From TrEMBL:
Keywords on record: Amino-acid biosynthesis, Lyase, Methionine biosynthesis, Pyridoxal phosphate
Entry-linked InterPro entries: Cys/Met-Metab_PyrdxlP-dep_enz, Cys_met_metab_PP, PyrdxlP-dep_Trfase, PyrdxlP-dep_Trfase_major, PyrdxlP-dep_Trfase_small
NCBIfam families reported in the protein's UniProt record: PRK08064.1
Enzyme Commission number(s): 4.4.1.13
Protein name: cysteine-S-conjugate beta-lyase
Keyword Amino-acid biosynthesis: yes
Origin species: Halobacillus campisalis
Family: Belongs to the trans-sulfuration enzymes family.
GO molecular function terms attached to this record: cysteine-S-conjugate beta-lyase activity
Cofactor(s) needed by this chain: pyridoxal 5'-phosphate
Cross-referenced Pfam families: Cys_Met_Meta_PP
Length: 395
């Protein structure tokens, strides 16, 4: 890969631009599970596809280059990447982890690893003092997600990584919301970057995949061993889908971020909307930290209506966004954290984190933003009309 080229160009012009044997301008999908060994004293590069596969190698090498790491790993899902990385830990180790971490990561730490004797402390990662206080002699990992879900809280990657190094800990960063197009945590001192490639990296709501990238030789060896031991690898066909999605990552994210800013600004000015959370607003908490460590605000925003009844009216009326979990796709996706991503969280915990019954999260896709705004205008007008009607009825 030519490092002198920009990120945008390197998405297309890398070692896998064409197949060295045939010149095919698309990475071949190698479905074989096993590989013939002409000489058992000198095995070939590949022997069995859990341990190594040419299509997966192409994806792993590509993502490593894009994140500025030395080695990448592809897994069957974002959770498989995250869970396998936690296998770096041992009994009696401790993790300091962001309290507004992705629900599946919360579940893994809280309900699974705990049973294996791996302890944790949930902290507000935006508060460095709180993070420092939570570090114990047996702390091995500081785990960050920034911007976080669904309120887009910003954690200072460089400051947390420094704190981790000073205490002999590793820093893991879930970079799903930003992707290497907008944020490269390894360059800021993190040790391991994790992705749900299901989201922006693949980008088309048609594949579930996970990635991990590091720049430590030792961590690479350990992860390679764990990937083969645990076995939750990404299949060849899915690797190809992720590679295909990656080619358009930069232009998809640019367009979606631009539209997200437009939609966020519209929502911010609407009397029916109580609050808008978007890292691109200079008034957003941590906006300057985000601007320092990232080159864009991303395509995800959240906004608050009054209550569940308003969310119900609004979601009944709007037509364009898919109403679903997930994010980072070509089509806009609207989700309702209280009933979807955070449904399992006790109500008190949920409300404490600001995830009220009126909160909606929007991942902006590639529609014309004016069409999205028009759709939202209709939805919000309906909310208002319903409110007027019920206040008339209650008189
Ligand atoms: C979706 C998501 C995950 C989990 O990824 P899967 O591919 O669904 O397993 C992890 N972290 C974040 C931030 C996510 O949005």
């Amino acid at each position: 890969m030519t490092e002198s080229h920009s990120f945008q160009t390197r998405l297309l012009h890398n070692n896998h631009k064409f197949d060295s044997q045939t010149g095919a301008v698309s990475v071949p999908i190698q479905q074989a599970s096993t590989f013939h060994q002409a000489d058992f004293d000198n095995p070939g590069v590949y022997d069995y596809s859990r341990s190594g596969n040419p299509t997966r190698d192409a994806l792993e090498e590509t993502i490593a280059g894009l994140e500025g790491g030395s080695r990448g790993f592809a897994f069957a899902s974002g959770m498989a990447a995250i869970s396998t990385s936690f296998m770096l830990l041992s009994k009696e180790d401790h993790v300091v982890i962001s309290e507004d971490v992705y629900g599946g990561t919360f579940r893994m730490i809280h309900d699974v690893l705990y049973r294996f004797g791996i302890d944790h402390t949930f902290v507000n990662m935006t508060d460095l003092h709180e993070v420092a206080t939570a570090i114990q002699p047996n702390t091995k990992v500081l785990y960050i997600e920034t911007p976080s879900n669904p309120l887009l809280n910003i954690t200072d990657i460089q400051a947390v990584s420094k704190l981790a190094k000073a205490n002999g800990c590793l820093t893991f960063v879930d970079n799903t919301f930003m992707t290497p197009a907008l944020q490269r945590p390894l360059e800021l001192g993190a040790d391991l970057v994790l992705h749900s490639a299901t989201k922006f990296i693949a980008g088309h709501s048609d594949v579930v995949a996970g990635l991990a990238v590091t720049n430590h030789p030792e961590l690479s060896e350990q992860l390679s061993f764990l990937q083969n031991s645990f076995g939750s690898i990404l299949g060849a066909h899915d690797c190809w889908l992720v590679l295909r999605g990656l080619k358009t990552l930069d232009c998809r994210l640019k367009q979606s971020s631009e539209s997200a800013y437009k939609v966020a600004t519209y929502l911010h000015g609407h009397p029916q909307v109580e609050e808008v959370y978007y890292p691109g607003f200079s008034t957003h908490p941590g906006a300057s930290t985000h601007a320092y460590q990232s080159s864009g605000s991303g395509a995800v925003l959240s906004f608050r209506l009054k209550d569940e009844a308003e969310v119900r009216s609004f979601s009944q009326k709007i037509e364009l966004p898919v109403f679903a979990v997930s994010l980072g796709a070509v089509e806009s996706i609207l989700s309702y954290p209280a009933k979807m991503s955070h449904a399992a969280m006790p109500e008190k915990e949920r409300l404490k984190r600001g995830i009220t019954d009126g909160l909606l999260r929007l991942s902006v896709g590639l529609e014309n933003p004016d069409d999205l705004i028009k759709d939202f205008e209709t939805g919000l007008a309906y909310v208002k009309a319903r409110n007027n009607l019920s206040s008339v009825q209650s008189v």
